[in-house]
Amino acid sequence: MSLITPAGTQSQSPNQSELVIRATTRMVSVDAVVTDKEGRPVTNLTKDDFTILEDGKPQTVASYAVSEAGATSQQRPKAQPVLPPHVTTNRPDVVESSDRIAVLLLDGLNTPPQNQNYLKQQMLKFLAEHFDPSRKLAVVVLSEKLIVLQTFTSDPALLKTALQKFQAVAPAVARNAGEWDLSTTYVSTPEISLPPEAHGGPDSSGADPTQVPTSGGSSDTFANDIAYMMRRFENEAQNFARDTRVNITLDALQQIARFLSGQRGRKSLLWFSTAFPVAVSGINPEDLSTSRNYGDKLRVTTNLLNDAHVAIYAIDAAGLAGGALGDASQSGRDATGRIMLTVEANRKLAKDEFARMATDDTLERAALDTGGRFFHANDISNSIALSLDEAGSYYMLSYYPTNKKWDGKFRQVRVKVNRPGLTVRSRQGYFAIDAARKNAGTKTDDLKAAVSSIALPSTQVTFMARALPPAKNSELMVEFAVDSNTVSFETVARPSGSGTQVARQNCNLSFEVQAFTPDGKLVKGAGQSADADLEPETYERVRKQGIPMKVPISLNAGKYMLHLGVRDNHTGLIGTAELPVVVGGS
Predict the structure, then answer these.
(1) Which of 56, 264, 455, 475 could form a disulfide with 552 if both were Cys (CB 3.0 to 4.6 A apart)?
(2) What are phi and psi of 367, to 5 degrees?
(3) How far is CA 416 from CA 29, 52, 102, 180, 271, in A?
(4) What is the pLDDT of residues 104-155, one digit of tens each?
């Protein structure tokens, strides 16, 4: 018998005498890595050695814990549990806080193919020279979507096989966003019939090379007007493709954050990429009119990573690339063979330098905002080893903010230690978001979107699910059992029969089931919601046994992959999983 009644069948509706009590005091957790002058982890600090500042104001450390690399490295690894037939779960198989886990993200979407080949060589070199079997690594690739090459393993042979599968590619989205240089002032005379009274255009030898392109006007030549419009059109085309790349990349980082959320402790994401610019601008008029800034989108993503205690170790896949000035392949001539004048050459160098700094800034900002590091060196293998070695030892600190106003604004967090000569790396802050207000009215859209594409399961809300083969002409019944310790409950006071207020625990969940064919085509979806006020006895039972819910779905005979999802509507957190089923056959 279900303990949760679907929202649509509840007999009691809220009334004016109802009192809803929400906790306004929340604990903020910060993981911090402390190293000495030689870069070695420091693990002998006490709670009193730390000071936490939020927007410059001291906070009281409420809890303190230290995790030291190698503390459990001698323990035998636990065998992964074997699930019964027709059952799935998104519960992480790595649950010990002392395990050092990391995800290696090979960013083929934002990295040129030649850099991808070098990156692959360096990663294989790392496995051969530096790999520590006490670590568990997963390998994922980003092209036009996120692809899992290897789930968590400490077997170097499996990791090597996964890396050997990786082939350098240039996705269509990346090719369409290539940086084309249209900043030269030279343009050939267009073959357009003009009336005899038209004057001012350049002759067939080209434009005056000393004239800077402008945005138009009566004094501009006709050719320069066309050149300006061409450059602006190309900028818009590049920005459209770049917008697509940025959205795909940030969505992939958010998927990884949700995937790692259920793992305990501090996790590392090694992001190998040449990245995208956090801001797009330039020195020409057409650049200013087509500028972009992705800073806010990036910070929202890093905030989600921080909530999951994921630190980004960004490793520039291009290594120490030289600028155009020292590039022997640059002859100093433009596309027509003319020697570029000083103005043109300086403009080209400024544009290249601006683009390089913008992309480096993206990697560095993502790393610093999450308490990680940015590596810009040719020895990528060594950068991987340093990232994993540092990430194994950390402190977990928590505090209750003195500022109780949850207004959605960003709050800066700084962690300091009272010992000289030490470096602290931790998250840079968080958004003070009221989850109840933020998630009002968004119960279905984000859940459906998360369930429709499950490259990595989300573990923010964990559950088990079962779908037994149905009898002939019967609906397929998907049975959920949600882990109650990953769900938020709100205390509500309801009037009893005697008129007194009785405290109950409100649980508000949404469930989603989507059936896909083996070739990935969506066939049908079904949803269910549960909004229930649990009496004390029922609440205690679900805390121990989980929260049950059944979602029926009608399917024709055939093989399907079910995409399953649960959303906690109090917090907006989501859990997803997959389950293969066969309807009407064995």
Answers:
(1) 475
(2) -70, -50
(3) 15, 6, 26, 45, 27
(4) 999 999 888 888 988 899 999 999 888 888 888 999 999 888 999 999 988 9
pLDDT, tens digit, 9 for 90 and up, residues 188-228: 434 444 444 444 444 444 444 444 444 444 445 666 666 66
3-state helix, strand, coil in the chain (%, to 5): 30, 30, 40
The gap between the terminal CA atoms of the chain, to the nearest Å, is 29
Starting at the edge strand found earlier in the chain, the sheet holding 463-466 runs 87-89, 463-466, 476-482, 547-553
Label residues 5-42 b or e (16+ Cβ within 10 Å = b): ebeeeeeeeeeeeeeeeeeeeeebebbbbbbeeeeebb
Token pair of 375 as six digits: 């590596």
Rg of the chain over all Cα atoms, to the nearest angstrom: 28
Q: What are phi and psi of 75, to 5 degrees?
A: -75, 150
Measure the CA–CA gap between 98 and 317, rounded to whole angstroms: 29
Give 66's contacts (C-beta < 8 A, 6+ positions apart). Answer: 43, 45, 393, 394, 395, 396
Residue 410 backbone phi and psi in degrees, to 5: -80, 135
Distance CA 10, CA 30 (A): 40
Structural element, H or E, at residue 580: strand 574-583
Query: 568: buried, middle or exposed (CB in 10 Å: 19+, 13-18, 0-12)?
Result: buried
**Cβ-contact 267, 101 below 8 angstroms:** yes
Asked whether 380 and 317 are in contact (CB, 8 A), the reply is: yes
Give 17's Cβ-side CA count (13 Å radius).
Answer: 9
The H or E element spanning position 240 is helix 222-260
Bridge partners, residue 170, by sequence: none
Q: List all residues 6 or more positions away from 353 whose beta carbon is below 8 Å from its beta carbon.
A: 323
How far apart, in whole angstroms, are the C-alpha atoms of residue 223 and residue 214? 11
Residue 460 CB burial class (10 angstroms; 0-12, 13-18, ≥19): buried
Report the SS3 class of residue 449: helix
Q: How far is CA 174 from the centre of its chain?
A: 19
pLDDT in tens, 227-239: 666 666 666 666 7
Q: How many angstroms separate the CA atoms of 579 and 463, rounded?
A: 13
Name the token pair of 60: 């009281």
Strand, helix or coil for residue 352: helix
pLDDT at position 283 over 50: no
8 A C-beta contact, residue 526 and residue 444: no
Query: Of 277, 290, 281, which is closest to residue 215 (Cα–Cα)?
Result: 290
**Which contiguous run of DSSP H or E holds residue 241?**
helix 222-260
Dist. CA 543–CA 556, nearest whole Å: 37
pTM: 0.78
